[in-house]
Design brief:
Length: about 190
């Protein structure tokens, strides 16, 4: 066995132990608690609200924007959680390390509604600064207070520019994709 294979085997064994401990913790302390049900509700209800409010004529564009916002939220959440900067004691599913209701529902829905209603860059940035302040300085402290989010050296102020950046970069990428598609459609001989 090479040094690389031995190191991989050690990591695999630690991962197995983490899996077992996580599953046991989730079944014993998380599943079917009021915190778990709150996470389930915040996973489902924002999507229902979004579906009622979304402009169906721009559905694909808004969904693409929401996809990028969600992907960035998951990316940053994974980095922070695996770096032990924060933790989520009550997860929807075992073996998950991100707050899926936030990353796949609450944040993308809020971002998509801001994207839909604030179409100019100036209005969009202002709305997302307000939204980012709400996430950083109201939602995060509330989640800490009710025990759904634990900070380990992370400060709320650090989240603020990340939330703003997620919104702006997602809008830029979405706009870029739309421009590429429009240019491709307008070229002769393209189908």
């Amino acid at each position: 066995m090479t040094d690389l294979e031995a190191a991989q085997e050690i990591i695999l064994e630690i991962q197995r132990q983490l899996r077992d401990a996580s599953m046991n913790y989730w079944y014993k302390y998380v599943f079917n608690t009021w915190q778990w049900w709150l996470n389930i509700a915040t996973l489902i209800l924002p999507v229902i609200l979004w579906w009622k409010l979304v402009n169906k004529k721009k559905l694909m564009e808004i969904v693409i924007y929401g996809f990028f916002a969600s992907a960035f939220a998951v990316f940053f959440d994974t980095i922070g959680e695996t770096s032990v900067l924060w933790d989520y004691p009550y997860l929807v599913i075992p073996m998950d390390y991100i707050l899926i209701d936030a990353d796949y529902s609450v944040l993308p829905v809020a971002y998509m509604l801001a994207y839909q209603y604030f179409t100019t860059w100036k209005g969009f940035i202002a709305a997302n600064i307000a939204l980012s302040a709400l996430f950083s300085f109201v939602a995060e402290p509330l989640l800490v207070w009710i025990g759904l989010y634990e900070l380990h050296g992370w400060k709320y102020i650090y989240s603020f520019p990340i939330y703003v950046a997620i919104a702006i970069v997602s809008k830029w990428i979405t706009g870029f994709c739309i421009r590429i598609q429009a240019a491709s459609v307008n070229k002769p001989g393209r189908s």
